[in-house]
Specification:
elongated; about 140 residues
């Protein structure tokens, strides 16, 4: 079950970081060769490649623990666990978490990131729901 949770969290984080990683990759590649050799900015380029995923993990992991696991307990008790339900709840939670963070930071721009929260939450929920459905099928067969 821990493996499924880690898989869901990683898939959610990767889905949130795809688009920003594309942007940071372009920035990083543009740094190579500017008044320097190729190897000097390599550390910065690698940092820019990894940064969006690290930021996404810092949001997805606590959200999955604080929202996803309690939702799992509630849905399991109600016998309403489906991948679709998890994806819908994950999408709503992803939007809520990102809006809450942007509001807390008093952000005047960057609200496009809400779309990443929607997508990431949905992916995390879907992957988690798929693993829960597989677990429930195994339980019923035994």
């Amino acid at each position: 079950m821990i493996r499924a949770f880690i898989k869901a969290v990683l898939m959610g984080a990767f889905s949130a970081s795809c688009l920003p990683t594309l942007g940071t990759t372009i920035i990083g590649l543009s740094m190579i060769g500017r008044n320097q050799g190729v190897w000097e900015p390599l550390g910065a380029v690698l940092y820019l490649l990894v940064l969006p995923t690290l930021v996404a993990l810092c949001v997805v992991v606590p959200s999955a623990v604080l929202i996803g696991l309690p939702v799992t307990a509630i849905l399991a008790r109600m016998n309403r666990e489906t991948p679709e339900t998890y994806a819908q709840i994950g999408s709503i939670a992803g939007v809520g978490v990102v809006v809450g963070l942007l509001w807390w930071m008093d952000a005047e721009s960057g609200w496009w990131i809400v779309a990443l929260g929607l997508f990431s939450g949905g992916v995390t929920g879907w992957v988690w729901g798929q693993s829960r459905a597989g677990l429930n099928e195994q339980f019923l067969e035994d």
